């Protein structure tokens, strides 16, 4: 089927099988491999992207459902080589080990801040719980997010 | 995943006609259960009719109730000002379910129709599942049953209904509005689900092709206090071992109105009229709350793996009621 995806400000006409998820369309058809495939069943958050500004798991979203919607991926965060404040804070606080979950963590954190849910350690803990980190970098992930939240 | 045809519905009538005419066609809303189970090979529709672009989203208030459009997402409903002000236990239940990423996709209609989280149901490599393959048996009854039901079970199925928000919704006597080929009808949520009995593959009273269009939720009376408490193996992003949603009106130390439902224990969102009867016109004391919890769990049928749930569910309900009474004081 014909599907046009609006990703990071550009329209991409694609020819896809109906089964293709947003995650597979991004990775396999558009070469945007920032969003990661972890569990592929909505449990780990590694594929987190923004759909019309709201964070979603791209693995449980059909590409066909995203027509006429705006998809934002980690590739669009930095501006002209300058890391987004959340990206810079993750680097500063060493908020990762293997890095596989990091793009999903960062996209989720960007949305969390926009939602106004980074007011306390407890709030960050609760509203970041959809992003798993097998390396257990959670303390530094929270520090990075708090840092950005406090900078305002 | 079996190949399927994707159709974006243009209006509700077309969607209902398409799905009603073909047993192999299903609705697609948020997709968080539907696509997951299709990837696992548990659901194998030949065609999906996407209803997320239909004008079925949003919350309207009628003064005594709210009408929640079926495709309103969990996050949208949790952020609704009337829900925050008048139905706080619905907001609590919503935000304790899933993750923000899933709540931004999952719809209220889909939440009510979510399928069992039973590991045996979700794994087609397991042969015995009466819900997936009627007559094949139940692997859960002799398997790991920690996450299974103790109320409303049968010898054929012990799968839990895992929705959080359905707990306060059933306590409030919400009404599910549906549209079918024969027109619309309203179904009380207390009569919407079917206990497994000897037909666990039939989970509710919907006819194939009937589309949930809205859920009507009566507001709590003035002066009511409510709370939803969820107990689980990890503190966030996990299904309930036990949960309770309750609303009380307490006047001069006496309970004048009580609504109680339990999660994590029933094959359906478990309204406890037994607990409500004990609470009504009784003093708002710990003794009353304990008696209500005993009444709520009286019919529990446990297995070795679920025996712990009886006491846990009672303590969950007592804590919920104490929290409400304490907030009142």
From TrEMBL, chain A:
Q: A Pfam family this protein belongs to?
A: Fer2
| GO function term, MF aspect, one | oxidoreductase activity, acting on the aldehyde or oxo group of donors
Q: Which pathway does this polypeptide act in?
A: Alkaloid degradation; nicotine degradation
Q: Which UniProt keywords apply?
A: 2Fe-2S, Iron, Iron-sulfur, Metal-binding, Oxidoreductase
Residues in domain 2Fe-2S ferredoxin-type?
Answer: 1-77
Q: Can you say what this protein is called? A: Xanthine dehydrogenase YagT iron-sulfur-binding subunit
From TrEMBL, chain B:
Q: What class of enzyme is it?
A: oxidoreductase
Keywords per UniProt? Oxidoreductase
What does UniProt list as this organism's lineage? Bacteria, Bacillati, Actinomycetota, Actinomycetes, Streptosporangiales
- What is the official name of this protein in its record? Xanthine dehydrogenase YagS FAD-binding subunit
Record's superkingdom? Bacteria
Gene3D superfamilies xrefs? 3.30.465.10, CO dehydrogenase flavoprotein, C-terminal domain, Uridine Diphospho-n-acetylenolpyruvylglucosamine Reductase, domain 2
Q: Where is the FAD-binding PCMH-type domain?
A: 1-222
| Listed GO MF terms | FAD binding; xanthine dehydrogenase activity
Under Enzyme Commission nomenclature, its number is 1.17.1.4
- What organism, scientifically named, is this protein from? Nonomuraea endophytica
Keyword NADP attached: no
């Amino acid at each position: 089927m014909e599907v046009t995806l609006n990703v990071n400000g550009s329209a991409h006409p694609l020819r896809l099988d109906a089964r293709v998820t947003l995650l597979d369309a991004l990775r396999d058809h558009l070469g945007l491999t920032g969003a990661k495939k972890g569990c592929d069943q909505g449990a780990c958050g590694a594929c987190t992207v923004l759909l019309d500004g709201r964070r979603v798991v791209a693995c449980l979203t059909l590409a066909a459902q995203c027509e006429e919607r705006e998809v934002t991926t980690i590739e669009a965060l930095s501006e002209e080589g300058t890391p987004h404040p959340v990206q810079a804070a993750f680097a500063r606080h060493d908020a990762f080990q293997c890095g596989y979950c990091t793009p999903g963590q960062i996209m989720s954190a960007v949305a969390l801040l926009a939602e106004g849910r980074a007011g306390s350690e407890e709030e960050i803990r609760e509203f970041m719980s959809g992003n798993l980190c097998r390396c257990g970098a959670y303390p530094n992930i929270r520090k990075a997010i708090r840092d950005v939240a406090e900078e305002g | 995943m079996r190949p399927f045809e994707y159709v974006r519905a243009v209006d509700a009538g077309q969607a209902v006609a398409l799905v009603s005419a073909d047993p192999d066609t299903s609705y697609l809303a948020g997709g968080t259960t539907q696509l997951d189970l299709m990837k696992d090979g548990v659901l194998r529709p030949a065609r999906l009719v996407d209803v997320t672009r239909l004008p079925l989203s949003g919350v309207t208030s009628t003064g005594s109730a709210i009408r929640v459009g079926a495709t309103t997402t969990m996050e949208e409903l949790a952020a609704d000002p009337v829900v925050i002000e008048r139905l706080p236990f619905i907001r609590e239940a919503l935000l304790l379910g899933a993750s923000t990423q899933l709540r931004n996709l999952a719809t209220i209609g889909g939440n009510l129709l979510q399928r069992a989280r039973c590991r045996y149901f979700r794994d087609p490599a397991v042969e015995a599942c009466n819900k997936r393959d009627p007559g094949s048996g139940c692997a859960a009854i002799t398997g790991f049953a920690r996450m299974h039901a103790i109320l409303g079970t049968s010898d054929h199925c012990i799968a839990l209904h895992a929705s959080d928000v359905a707990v306060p919704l059933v306590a409030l006597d919400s009404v599910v509005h549906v549209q079918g080929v024969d027109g619309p009808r309203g179904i009380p949520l207390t009569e919407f689900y079917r206990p497994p009995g000897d037909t666990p593959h039939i989970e509710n009273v919907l006819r194939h092709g009937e589309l949930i269009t809205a859920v009507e939720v009566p507001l709590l009376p003035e002066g009511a206090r409510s709370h939803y408490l969820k107990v689980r193996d990890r503190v966030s992003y996990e299904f309930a071992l036990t949960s309770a949603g309750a609303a009380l009106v307490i006047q001069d130390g006496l309970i004048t109105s009580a609504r109680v439902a339990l999660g994590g224990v029933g094959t359906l969102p478990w309204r406890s009229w037994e607990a409500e009867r004990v609470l009504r016109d009784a003093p708002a004391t710990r003794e009353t709350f304990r008696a209500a919890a005993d009444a709520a769990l009286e019919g529990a049928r446990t297995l070795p793996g679920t025996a712990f749930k009886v006491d846990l569910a009672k303590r969950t309900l007592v804590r919920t009621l104490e929290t409400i009474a304490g907030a009142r004081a």
